[in-house]
């Protein structure tokens, strides 16, 4: 069964903020600071983020919140080495998933 979230074309700013556990003001701020975030705006002016935008937020969140980089450092990283950064992020994400799965198996052992 396909997850309902993967069927969405656009995410509201509130949904994106909830995904990362941050305020909507931080999402708006990152949108202004990082060129890779380009939400669509509807007739009312509401931001509509695509899956690509959400993926870019994951990268920014990882660099700024998890690795502790400055905004300038994260901007440079995404500008100069985006492909490398994405690859490293995917590896880390997969390793976290494997760790969770192993911990789940360990908890089921007698």
From TrEMBL:
GO terms for molecular function: DNA binding; DNA-binding transcription factor activity. It comes from the Bacteria. The keyword Ribonucleoprotein does not apply. Residues 10-80 form the HTH merR-type domain. Keywords: DNA-binding. The keyword DNA-binding applies. It holds the Pfam family MerR_1. This is MerR family transcriptional regulator. It comes from Butyricimonas virosa. The lineage of its organism: Bacteria, Pseudomonadati, Bacteroidota, Bacteroidia, Bacteroidales.
């Amino acid at each position: 069964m396909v997850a309902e979230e993967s069927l969405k074309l656009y995410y509201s700013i509130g949904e994106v903020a909830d995904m990362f556990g941050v305020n909507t003001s931080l999402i708006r701020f990152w949108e202004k600071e990082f060129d890779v975030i380009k939400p669509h705006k509807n007739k009312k002016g509401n931001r509509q983020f695509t899956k690509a935008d959400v993926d870019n937020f994951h990268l920014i969140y990882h660099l700024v919140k998890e690795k502790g980089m400055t905004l300038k450092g994260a901007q440079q990283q995404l500008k100069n080495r985006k492909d490398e950064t994405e690859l490293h992020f995917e590896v880390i994400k997969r390793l976290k998933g494997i760790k969770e799965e192993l911990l789940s198996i360990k908890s089921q052992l007698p």
